[in-house]
Amino acid sequence: MTPLLSESRLGENLVVHLEKESVIVCGDLVSVGYHVNYEDAVVDNLENGIRTLRELRSRTYVPGHGAPGGPEILDEQLRYHAAVAAASSVDEIRRRFPGHALTEVLPQSLAAWQKSR
Fold first, then answer.
1. Where are the alpha helices (DSSP H) in 11-105?
2. Residues near 96 by Cβ (< 8 Å), separated by ≥ 6?
3. Based on the structure, what is the number of domains in the chain?
4. Which residues lie closer than 8 Å to 53 by C-beta, 6 or more apart?
5. pTM
6. How far apart are CA 60 and CA 102, in angstroms?
């Protein structure tokens, strides 16, 4: 087991790599089916954090929220971040990801991205 600290969130994201089992526990760096609360995130580091997870080439990724999956959940998370970064409104994000939970975090999440630009 190799614990890795991610700088993608402010000291609260611990990533654990179970090498023998080919599993990575991603913490809040990855969510599946949930809107991301970017309020405490360092949004400029999110993409690099996910790319680092991909470089470890695990078979299974366990997100901080949602169901485990393969590397495809990393791709989906990158697409989600890009969509939120490009969004001009909360309604636009809701329409793009209608099945995602935690819609209450969207106003502060969008504000965090806009602030980082």
1. 46-55, 72-86, 90-96
2. 83, 87
3. 1
4. 15, 24, 26, 29, 30, 61, 74
5. 0.86
6. 24
- What tens-digit pLDDT sequence spans the chain (117 residues)? 555 554 444 345 678 899 999 999 998 889 999 999 887 778 888 888 899 899 999 999 999 999 999 999 999 999 999 999 899 999 999 999 999 999 999 998 888 888 876
Residue 23's domain spans which residues?
Answer: 2-116
Q: How far apart are CA 78 and CA 7, in angstroms?
A: 16
**At 108, which CATH number?**
3.60.15.10
- The answer to whether residues 110 and 89 touch, using CB atoms and an 8 Å cutoff, is yes
